[in-house]
Amino acid sequence: MNRAQLDDLVAHYGLSPDAARLALELANARPSRAESLRFIVRLSQLAGALSLAAGIIFFIAANWDAFGKFGRFVLVEAVFAASIGVALWRPPPHALGRYALLMAFLMTGALLALFGQTYQTGADVYELFLSWAMLGVVFAIAGRWSVLWAAWIVVLNTALWLFCGFNPQTGLLWLAFGRWQISLAEILLMPMIVNVLLWILREYLEYRKDLPEAPRWLGRLILACAVTFGTWSGIVAIFGSDEFGAPGADGVVLLVLLASWAAIGAYAIRSRADVFPLALLAASLIVLTSCAIGETLDVDELALFFVLSIWLIASSTFSGRVLMHLVRTWEREESSQ
Prior knowledge:
This protein has helices at residues 3-13, 17-26, 33-62, 64-89, 95-119, 125-143, 146-166, 184-208, 216-239, 249-271, 276-296, 301-336.
């Protein structure tokens, strides 16, 4: 009996707090002391690795003039080489090897930033993060660790966010878009599609049982990034894109967005494994419909405020009730199997 079923049992029979605690202890549903200590140790190790990487970067920044150009590179490269050496000595899935590869991944970004700051290459900021993601994917694959993949996903989406947010129309990534008239709403579909493809790949590998280091929370992170970019694209399309877009581009963007949301929602309902995708889609649709109401409704500000308030309350309540109904239904079906 899992924790959700125990919670349903306690709620159904109205057990007292003492009885609920006894039921949790009898079912061994609470983490043991050894499990809690193991979690704290792992969390401390991860915090230590991140603190060490940040300490090295801030140490160089604080002593920028004292080290000189050669000294800065030697320090970062020495830490990078030592991390690779430790990873080769204790390769993953050994914990030491995983933390060493995480350090190497972080030092890769530090080296790129140091190179750009020292030689003033003139590259856009998004190119730094994009290069970091391209070089760091090797460490993520070798690490076989969800934390490393999460760090890589954050770096990749930071590069995409910087590219889309500033819209520089320069640099390596822009070569793929410079030939056509393309609006910001259309550009924002690109990172959404990238994240959706990564999410599909993760779901496929989970189905094949080929990637145990990609837990469900990693898929949620990827899908959250996809829905964020997609919602941003829809908002821009609703309020009208810039002058670079072709006529009718905003309508096409909204159609692509709604079709993508429908496909993701249909998959989530069919798989019955996780309600989180549906919650993300519901939140996105509430935001988009609220923007559409605000853009199309020709009333004064006070009336618009009340209309949007009523809509937000009604749509949020309806979405919450539907999601909770799905959760309870799926849990009953799982327990009856």
